[in-house]
């Protein structure tokens, strides 16, 4: 079978590489062409048609500035679909680009599978119409997505969540606490407070100052900032003098007693690791923005742990609620001995049960290969 896989950013490269490995397991003769990164190269043994570094632009102004390049990449990808005629197009997130590619595949009669689907249940719901027209099957990694997509007339299968499997694998080989503390010159007698301000400059600028103030109110804790790859240490120094450990966010959270986390995928990782957390998202911090945000969102929560559980497990301190006083009050609740700590940990266990224990990439690969085999047999 021939598979064309499109992943436009680093996280997509991770998930797509796992899927490619599993597809090869189900079909040893599988052939691949792809848009993606180094991990996908490692699994396929070949170079991408386009590396995601040429595609991973965020924000309207940045996308607009690179629009000619993106349009050229799209044209090239469409040409590859037409000339190579794969048995399936597999899309991994990156909806603004991938849905345009899906439209072309649909026109050519190539089946389209969406793995790591867009978060259309939260915002930009209009994209559901495009998915209904051009996507043959959604391979969902979030259990609450299934009912949403079925209500909108899409074929969907829940395959499990890859983050659960990834976290468990990393926890099994985690460096022990004493070695981690010794390697980074940390005080092993003081509990660790992980500050995870995000991976983008705007997130760091808006959220780290709040985290810094809150951390200063807990001298019994040892705060450390999780430095993101690609962000210079001097960026953090503008907002805090707290030590930075770069590129080890997972280990830092795994050895922490609690964490302050900028709302995003890190909140799910923290929950799967089992570290009690407070979710922050400062932005401009106005009450007006908060009310507008609530009206735009189609879901009651913004963090994945709460959405998966269907209730509030972690406190979401958003916009005007993201102040040192309010965040500190929530952190105090979940520190060792705090009244909210056990309830949060029980909520994490409930969330894990809802995710199930299916190996997501393998389940997705199995669905795709069986579907394509059925089509080819007709």
Describe the 3D structure.
- It is a single chain.
- It is built from 18 helices and 13 strands.
- The chain has 378 residues and is α/β, with parallel strands linked by helices.
- It has 2 domains: 2-160 and 358-377, Glycogen Phosphorylase B (Rossmann fold, 3-Layer(aba) Sandwich), CATH 3.40.50.2000; 166-355, Glycogen Phosphorylase B (Rossmann fold), CATH 3.40.50.2000.
- Strands 3-2-1-4-5-6-7 form a 7-stranded parallel sheet, sandwiched between helices. It has a 6-stranded parallel sheet with strand order 10-9-8-11-12-13, with helices on both faces.
- Strand 2 (31-36), helix 2 (38-44) and strand 3 (50-51) form a beta-alpha-beta unit.
- The mean pLDDT is 89.
Through-space gap between termini = 15 Å
Q: For the record, what CATH class of the largest domain applies?
A: Alpha Beta
What proportion of the residues is helical, as a percent range?
40-55%
The largest sheet has its strands arranged as 3-2-1-4-5-6-7
Characterize the main sheet: 7 strands, parallel
Low-confidence stretches: none
Gross morphology is: elongated
Class by alpha and beta content? alpha/beta
Q: How many H/I helices?
A: 18
Q: Tell me the radius of gyration.
A: 22 Å
Count the domains.
2
In brief:
By secondary structure, the chain is of the alpha/beta class. It has helices at residues 10-26, 38-44, 60-65, 67-84, 95-108, 127-134, 145-151, 162-172, 177-183, 201-216, 233-237, 249-254, 265-273, 287-296, 304-309, 324-334, 341-355, 360-377; strands spanning 2-7, 31-36, 50-51, 88-92, 112-115, 137-140, 156-158, 192-196, 222-227, 244-246, 258-262, 277-281, 316-318.
């Amino acid at each position: 079978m021939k598979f064309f896989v499109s992943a436009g950013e680093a996280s997509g490269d991770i998930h797509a590489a796992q899927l490619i490995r599993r597809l090869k397991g189900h079909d040893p003769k599988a052939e691949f062409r792809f848009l993606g990164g180094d991990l996908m190269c490692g699994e396929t043994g070949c170079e991408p048609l386009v590396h995601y570094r040429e595609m991973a632009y965020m924000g309207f102004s940045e996308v607009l500035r690179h629009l000619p390049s993106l349009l050229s990449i799209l044209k090239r990808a469409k040409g590859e679909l037409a000339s190579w005629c794969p048995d399936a197009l597999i899309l991994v997130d990156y909806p603004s680009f991938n849905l345009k590619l899906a439209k072309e595949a649909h026109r050519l009669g190539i089946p389209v599978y969406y793995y790591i689907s867009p978060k259309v249940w939260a915002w930009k719901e209009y994209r559901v119409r495009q998915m209904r027209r051009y996507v043959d099957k959604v391979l969902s990694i979030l259990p609450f997505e299934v009912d949403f997509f079925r209500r909108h007339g899409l074929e969907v299968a829940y395959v499990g969540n890859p983050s659960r499997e990834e976290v468990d694998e990393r926890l099994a080989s985690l460096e022990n606490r004493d070695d981690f503390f010794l390697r980074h010159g940390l005080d092993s007698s003081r509990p660790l407070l992980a500050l995870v301000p995000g991976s983008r400059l705007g997130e760091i600028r808006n959220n780290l100052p709040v985290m810094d103030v809150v951390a200063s109110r807990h001298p019994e804790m040892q705060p450390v900032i999780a430095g993101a790859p690609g962000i210079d240490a001097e960026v953090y120094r503008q907002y805090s003098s707290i030590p930075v450990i770069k590129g080890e966010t997972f280990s830092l959270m795994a050895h922490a007693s609690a964490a302050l986390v900028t709302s995003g995928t890190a909140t799910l990782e923290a929950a799967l690791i089992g570290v009690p957390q407070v979710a922050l998202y400062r932005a401009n911090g106005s009450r007006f923005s908060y009310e507008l945000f609530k009206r735009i969102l189609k879901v009651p929560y913004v963090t994945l742990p709460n959405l998966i559980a269907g209730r509030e497990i972690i406190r979401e301190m958003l916009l005007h609620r993201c102040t040192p006083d309010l965040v500190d009050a929530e952190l105090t609740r979940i520190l060792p001995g705090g009244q909210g700590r056990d309830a949060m940990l029980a909520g994490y266990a409930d969330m894990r049960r809802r995710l199930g224990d299916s190996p997501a990439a393998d389940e997705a690969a199995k669905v795709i290969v069986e579907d394509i085999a059925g089509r080819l047999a007709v």
